[in-house]
């Protein structure tokens, strides 16, 4: 991800008044800005600093917000509302008993409070989920030493075309099937799903903040390649595909996500 990607995610969070994430992403955008080639800088450094400053202010970090707005004014003295925001931060610091000489000194630790309405257990689950996404939930060396790869050849056809399987975790069991879908197949599925994309529902709701994405379901009637992949999935998993759903194609885009949740099957009797 480059600075532009980080900025767009931070902007999406800012527009949702999710200042916890807008601070994180705007700080990342600020750090990565100078890694962009000048001719490819599609974002403005001033915009990054402005949103970062306001987000810090909203989270109660007055001194940090003031320091960032100083940098913004130095970079662009006529940036809209920058001077007014600077005065606002200074007035609030004075109201909090901070003397002018100390406005930019003795900076307290960052306060980036995350407001969640979830229960404690849901909150803990969410943190674990996000750690996994960031690759921070590492497996210890003893567990790693037991992991292995193998060729799946338990069906006659697989004797001719074995499937590469990599076990990445035992508790719970998680595996990666390697090289089972080709670039040409992915392109075909993208092309046939593109006109079918619609806002992804969550449960019985047509739209929800739990999931921000667009999705489409494709099946063998749409293209023969879907049938081929379904047959391949049967060989990969040893599951019966007769009652399986169609293949789901999702586009999350910048700022899209899905909250951690349990899936419940629909059972017909």
TrEMBL record:
Point out the signal peptide segment. Answer: none
Pfam families assigned to the protein according to its UniProt record, in alphabetical order: TPR_P4H
Transmembrane annotation, as ranges? none
Top-rank taxon: Eukaryota
Q: MF terms per GO, please?
A: L-ascorbic acid binding; metal ion binding; procollagen-proline 4-dioxygenase activity
One GO cellular component this record assigns the protein to is:
endoplasmic reticulum
Q: Does the keyword Nucleotide-binding apply?
A: no
PANTHER family named among the record's database cross-references? PROLYL 4-HYDROXYLASE ALPHA SUBUNIT, PROLYL 4-HYDROXYLASE SUBUNIT ALPHA-2
Name-wise, this protein is Prolyl 4-hydroxylase peptide-substrate-binding domain-containing protein
């Amino acid at each position: 991800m480059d600075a532009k990607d980080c900025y767009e995610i931070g902007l999406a969070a800012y527009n949702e008044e999710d200042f916890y994430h807008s601070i994180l992403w705007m700080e990342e955008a600020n750090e990565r800005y100078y890694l962009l080639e000048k001719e490819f800088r599609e974002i403005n450094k001033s915009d990054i600093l402005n949103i970062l400053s306001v987000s810090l202010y909203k989270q109660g970090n007055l001194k940090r917000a003031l320091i960032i707005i100083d940098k913004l004014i130095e970079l662009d003295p006529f940036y809209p509302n920058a001077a007014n925001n600077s005065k606002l931060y200074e007035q609030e610091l004075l109201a909090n008993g901070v003397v002018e000489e100390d406005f930019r000194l003795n900076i307290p630790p960052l306060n980036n409070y995350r407001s969640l309405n979830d229960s404690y257990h849901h909150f803990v689950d969410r943190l674990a989920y996000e750690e996994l996404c960031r690759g921070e939930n590492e497996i210890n060396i003893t567990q790693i030493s037991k992991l292995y790869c193998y060729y799946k050849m338990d069906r006659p056809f697989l004797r001719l075309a074995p499937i590469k399987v990599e076990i990445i975790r035992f508790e719970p069991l998680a595996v990666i099937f390697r090289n089972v879908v080709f670039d040409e197949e992915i392109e075909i599925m993208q092309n046939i799903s593109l006109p079918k994309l619609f806002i992804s529902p969550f449960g019985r709701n047509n739209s929800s903040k739990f999931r921000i994405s667009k999705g489409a379901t494709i099946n063998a009637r749409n293209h023969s390649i879907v049938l081929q992949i379904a047959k391949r999935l049967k060989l990969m998993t040893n599951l019966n595909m007769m009652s399986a759903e169609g293949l789901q194609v999702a586009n999350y885009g910048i700022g899209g996500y899905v909250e951690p949740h349990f899936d419940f099957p629909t059972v017909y009797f």
